[in-house]
Amino acid sequence: MTVATRGDWKADLMPDDCEAISIARRYSFEEFERLRAGVVPRSMDDRWFIYYEEPWLFLHRSWTGYCIFRVRFERVNDGMAIAQAFVNRKPEQYRGAEDDDVLLGTLLDSRAGRDVRKQVIAYVRNQQGKGLLPFVGGD
Predict the structure, then answer these.
(1) Is 8 helix (H, G, I), strand (E, B) or coil?
(2) pLDDT at 125
(3) What is the largest CA-CA distance in the chain?
(4) Of 29, 25, 50, whose CA–CA distance to 105 is shortest?
(5) Whole-prediction pTM value?
(6) How many whole angstroms separate alpha carbon 35 and alpha carbon 56?
(7) Which of 9, 24, 88, 95 has a CA that sits 20 to 30 A from residue 103's CA?
(8) Measured distance CA(11)–CA(67) in Å, rounded
(9) What confidence tens digit (pLDDT) does each residue in 88-124 have?
(10) CA-to-CA distance for 81 and 84, rounded, in angstroms?
(11) Please, are residues 109 and 25 in contact by the beta-carbon 8 Å criterion?
């Protein structure tokens, strides 16, 4: 499995204008390895660039390089759990939504290999064309 690194794509730093968001997720060690491997976009349809620098997972919009989410993980008995999560609140970089936690959860679950079809359908219906669809490419 290829592992994405910061240097694989345009990756701006998370701006100071960010906000902590509440999201509870646990992943098995196997699922976390998929998250840790990240995603390097292969085409214009791949909307996210994701990479891990311990203990943070960074999620950037592939077209702009803007860091939208930053997630810190910690080890728990049976895997890894989200300890902290931040979302970009710089208006010229990210419009944000009241359901940023849902978007982040769907992105993470998808990359971890979980079935997110129901989550994606509900999210897309709620977004009504806002342009931040939670699809990630990769292996």
Answers:
(1) helix
(2) 72
(3) 40
(4) 25
(5) 0.85
(6) 11
(7) 9
(8) 7
(9) 999 999 988 778 998 999 999 999 999 888 877 776 7
(10) 9
(11) yes
